[in-house]
Amino acid sequence: MKIVDLLTPPTGLKVIITGGAAGIGAVIAKAFHEVGAQVYICDINASAVDRMKLEYPGMQGGVVDVGIKQHVDRIMDEAISLLGGLDILVNNAGIAGPTGNIEELDADAWEQTISTNLNSQYYFLSKAVPYLKQSGQNPHIIAMSSVAGRLGYPFRTPYASTKWAIVGLMKSLANELGPHNIRVNAILPGVVAGERMDRVIDARAQALDISFESMREQYLEKISLRRMVTMEDVAAMALFLSSRAAVNVTGQAISVDGNVEYL
């Protein structure tokens, strides 16, 4: 087999993507669909799930609140039944969480961020791993972290705390599941162009009482390449990590960020 042929994931992989109906998750779902994977997406937004299923025939999906274990158990049973097994889990669902000084943060908003970003990863993993152990297709877990999972992020402590925790979860599972031939990696996107990032910039600009344009420029100045990355950049990394070219890549926190120097 030519090395170039190793770069595309095998056709027919059975893939579950959380938060897969919008943003980075949707672009990852589209990418796997394009290479012939069987894709199941789950998301809290029912209309977005329906739109993805309509736009990409053969893609399947359901509605779930990832922060509620009973919901996750139900959706995973449905997904596994429809797919007939599982080769790849992309734990992507997450929220930005609140912005503000630690002493001013709302406790409920803190708890929601932990539940959605971190607890959900455990809920899906606990259901997925038994099926991944049965896979003969280079089984793989992708945990979506963030550049905020390797750097301090003032005024965004709930979000950063979950993203650091996800890296620790990934590192531990890579050791635990390696003997079962299951690879585990984390992708750490940086400043990703799009509406969500615009909202994050706007919230932080308000917290610091400066203009949106000034805050955006501050973000770009922290990036070595002086540009944002795209959702397609992140999806391309997910495909590479799921390909045969990455069969010995595990336990890695891989930044796709243009080298963000500080936050």
**Helical element count?**
8
The structural domain count equals 1
- For the largest sheet, list the strands in their spatial order: 3-2-1-4-5-6-7
Order of helices and strands: EHEHEHEHEHEHHHE
* Average pLDDT figure: 96
Residue share in helix: 40-55%
Largest sheet data:
7 strands, parallel
Indicate the structural class.
alpha/beta
Spatial extent as radius of gyration = 18 Å
Provide the CATH architecture.
Answer: 3-Layer(aba) Sandwich
User: Which segments are poorly predicted (pLDDT under 50) over 5 or more consecutive residues?
Assistant: none
CATH topology label: Rossmann fold
**Global shape:** globular
* Beginning-to-end CA distance, first to last residue: 43 Å
Number of strands: 7
| CATH homologous superfamily caption | NAD(P)-binding Rossmann-like Domain
Q: Quickly name the level 1 CATH class.
A: Alpha Beta
